[in-house]
Design a protein that fits this description.
Number of strands: 4
Largest sheet: 2 strands, antiparallel
Radius of gyration: 23 Å
Strand content: 5-15%
Transmembrane segments: 60-79, 85-108
Helix content: over 70%
Protein name: Cyanobacterial aminoacyl-tRNA synthetase CAAD domain-containing protein
Keywords: Membrane, Transmembrane, Transmembrane helix
Region (Disordered): 1-27
Shape: extended
Structural class: mainly alpha
């Protein structure tokens, strides 16, 4: 017997949901979800360990809050109608120029994106006061 379940719809008729989600069988999709949860748990525990090593926690939290605030402010600023017209072409040109550089760096040279991000963040955090 197929593992399809009947679901009620608004009109009172019944709809049949197939055993696949997004083209993949549910069992294979469940394995991906479990692996993603393990990866997320590893990242979360790594973040918690690094946060525990920080000596000045309020400064670290303030930097994170300032970074998130700057991200939202920049998003708002870039999407103003006047700046959208001015920055439209330069941002596209920047994307065209940077894309081949990133392709060479991460695809052809096989550098790790995650390790590169970690190195850059650690270099920046060493330069910020109270984050050594």
């Amino acid at each position: 017997r197929a593992s399809a379940s009947a679901l009620p719809t608004r009109a009172g008729t019944r709809s049949v949901r197939s055993a696949t989600v997004g083209g993949a069988p549910r069992s294979r999709r469940a394995g991906v979800v479990v692996r993603a949860e393990k990866d997320f748990d590893a990242v979360l525990s790594d973040f918690a360990n690094k946060f525990e090593k920080v000596e000045n926690k309020p400064v670290a939290v303030a930097y994170v809050a300032a970074a998130v605030g700057a991200l939202f402010f920049t998003e708002w600023l870039i999407h103003l109608p006047a700046l959208d017209i001015v920055l439209g072409f330069p941002m596209q040109l920047l994307g065209v120029v940077v894309s081949p550089i990133l392709i060479v760096r991460y695809v052809l040279d096989k550098k790790s994106v995650g390790q590169d991000v970690i190195d850059n963040v650690s270099n920046i955090s060493k330069k910020l006061p109270g984050m050594k």
